[in-house]
Every structure is written in structure tokens, then in C-alpha cells.
Design brief:
Elements (H helix, E strand, L loop, with lengths): L3 E5 L3 H12 L3 E6 L2 H7 L5 E4 L5 H5 L8 E4 L5 H13 L5 E5 L3 H9 L4 E3 L1 H14 L3 E6 L4 E7 L9 H4 L1 H5 L2 E12 L5 E8 L12 E7 H8 L2
Parallel strand pairs: 1-2, 1-4, 2-3, 4-5, 5-6
Antiparallel strand pairs: 7-8, 8-11, 9-10, 9-11
Length: 229
């Protein structure tokens, strides 16, 4: 049985979230107080509800049975996002409420009224862009704590053709290699060239090759040290 999610606030972020969740087979209840926004996702989600999520009586009519996670995606009305978060955690005691903040103060208030997680898209996107500008060789980087990330980067030339156990990356650089992605080229029975990418968990004996992509986890400055070899 698919998981059920409620998304409250159907601006650009809320609509995108609804579509992504629904596209992955999740049951989505989309809620907003503007009929045009509700209509915009009506054919893509399991259920849409036109109501004011800051009104306790109106929210009590929302079909939240079976919903464990609600996302308060309201971004342009700070008061509404705080009230909706407080109601979901207080009156409806939802297990997991994720709320969007647009400022540090807004985030602090959301946490105080019970939000289990607060996201700030502007800050997170700014951090991602800064990472991209500072470390262009890192293909993607996901921040998991203030200074710890999971990152993709091309294997530095200094460490190719040497078994991982001899490199001692964990001891020397405090970086763990989680996956290695390698591109291979094959010729099919008809003479057509096919390129495919295979990911595998590295073994101590794994020797990195040129153009291998590493998925690593560690502190940002340690990942940067490895990348700059």
C-alpha cells in the first residue's frame, strides 16, 4: 500500500512536490484555499481539498486519515504557515510535519510550534550553488549536516590504478567511498556502440579508473582535499 502525504499550500513548490510524490506512486492529498491552484493539480493527485488550513473547523474536514507526513509548503504567508503547522501538530497530532520557512526567524517559530523538520529553500539552494561554484569538479553534493556532505566527484588522477586498501582514504583524508560509478562501452551484435554506466560497492581490492565517479561522504574540507589531489 502506498504512503499517504498531505501537501498544504499549492504554490510552485507545493505543486512540484505533489507531482513528484504522485509520480512515484504515493497517495497525495493536495490542500489550498485558492480554487485555481487546487484545480491545477486535480488530475495528478489522489485527492484535492479546497479549504483554509488555518481554520480548525475547516481543517478537521480534511481527509487526513492514514496520513503520517504533512508538508506545509506555504511560502508567502508566514502567519498561515505557522498556524497550519501548529494545528497539524496540536489538534491533529500528525506524526511528521515538515514546514517551509522563508527566514531564520520564521524557521525558529515553526520549530517552537512543533514542526518536526523545517526547510528553507532559499538557503538550501544558495548553499548548493555555492558548492557548485567553489567545487566545480564535484558533480553533485548533498549536505547532511552543517559541514558533512555526500558528494559525487571524478576520481582524482593521483589515486587511479591503485587498490583502495593501499590508498587509505579513510585514514588519510577521513573520507569514505560509498559507491563507484564506471562507464563502459560495448558493441552489440549489430555493430552498434552502446554506453552504459554501472554502479557498484567498492571492495578493498577495487582499483579506480580514469573517469570513474566516486560517491563519497565526509566533512566538506576533507572532500575538497581529496578532490584537489
Amino acid at each position: 500500500m502506498s504512503k499517504a502525504f498531505a501537501v498544504i499550500g499549492l504554490g510552485a513548490f507545493g505543486r512540484s512536490l505533489c507531482r513528484e510524490l504522485a509520480g512515484r506512486g504515493m497517495r497525495v492529498i493536495a490542500i489550498d484555499n485558492q480554487s485555481a491552484l487546487v484545480e491545477a493539480v486535480s488530475e495528478e493527485v489522489a485527492q484535492t481539498v479546497l479549504l483554509d488550513a488555518t481554520d480548525p473547523e475547516a481543517l478537521s474536514d480534511a481527509p487526513l486519515e492514514g496520513v503520517e507526513t504533512a508538508v506545509v509548503a506555504i511560502g508567502d504567508n508566514i502567519e498561515a504557515s505557522i498556524l497550519a503547522t501548529a494545528l497539524l501538530k496540536g489538534q491533529f497530532t500528525l506524526q511528521n510535519v515538515i514546514s517551509r520557512a522563508i527566514s531564520p526567524l520564521h524557521a525558529e517559530v515553526l520549530r517552537k510550534v512543533g514542526a518536526d523538520r523545517v526547510i528553507n529553500l532559499e538557503i538550501e539552494q544558495g548553499r548548493e550553488l555555492a558548492d557548485e561554484l567553489i567545487t566545480p569538479d564535484a558533480l553533485r553534493r548533498l549536505t547532511v549536516a552543517d559541514d558533512i556532505s555526500v558528494a559525487e566527484l571524478y576520481a582524482p588522477k593521483a589515486i587511479i590504478d591503485t587498490p583502495l586498501e593501499e590508498l587509505g582514504l579513510r585514514e588519510k583524508y577521513r573520507v569514505n567511498v560509498l559507491l563507484v560509478r564506471r562507464t563502459s562501452t560495448e558493441v552489440d551484435d549489430y555493430g552498434n556502440t552502446q554506453t552504459k554506466q554501472v554502479a557498484h560497492f567498492p571492495q578493498p581490492s577495487t582499483q579506480l579508473k580514469e573517469n570513474d565517479i566516486l560517491v563519497v561522504v565526509g566533512r566538506d574540507h576533507d572532500i575538497d582535499r581529496l578532490r584537489n589531489l
